[in-house]
Here is the input.
Amino acid sequence: MWLATYNVNSIRKRAPLLERFLKEEEPDLVLLQELKATAEQVPRAPFAALGYEMEVVGQKAYNGVAVLSRHPFRLRASVLPGLAPDLAAEARYIEIALEKGPGGPLIVGGLYAPNGNSGGEAGLARKRAWFTALARHAAALLAEEAPLILAGDFNVCPGADDAAPGALTPDDALIRPEVRADFRTLLWLGLWDAVRTLIPHGPAYTFWDYQGGAFAADRGLRIDHVLLAPPLTDRLQAVRIGKSWRAAEDPSDHVPVMVELAL
Here is the structure.
């Protein structure tokens, strides 16, 4: 099974690009972020024609997450549990149970974490509160020994190799020590970073800013991640980062991260 996470940066603008991606790569399951649309505004017909069922958690003009699947699934949650009301109102989390799993349903959480650079220290505090809720929820699922995947735009560069030199200022919320510590908390719970499991070192960027010729200069960031629970790590077959999609016509500033699991 091929799973992909893809921040499309506007589903309405990027629908033709996403349709091409689905036709060429043929992923089984796709987690989308930054739809910037309500559920009613999301174009569904092109994806349904390719055999994908779609579930959307949308929000007008901002945020928004979705699932596209070629296998039956059911929606488990449209809000990350444990958030304060202001954070819970933002469309940043979707959780499904996929029937195609190892001995039972596979739980998949698709997420779009807050950036944390707006609003000064208060914005950073909101981001960290969101990660606290994510870690608490992940711990509860792992305690049930659930086959779990958390994937999406985490807005964190976990290590030194995950941000090109000069791409970010030292005080950027994507690389603040406390934010990196929040990400490590997820790993200490027992989740595995799929990309770094198979590509331990070196650049594996998933985002290049539109400004300043970042893509041409390869000043990228690795902020889109796939985290696997221990029952799934032995089933990890391959990872691919679709860098060529950043050079496509009218691209997102992110590219898809694709993971193959033996399911």
User: Anything to note?
Assistant: The mean pLDDT is 97. The longest strand covers residues 106-112.
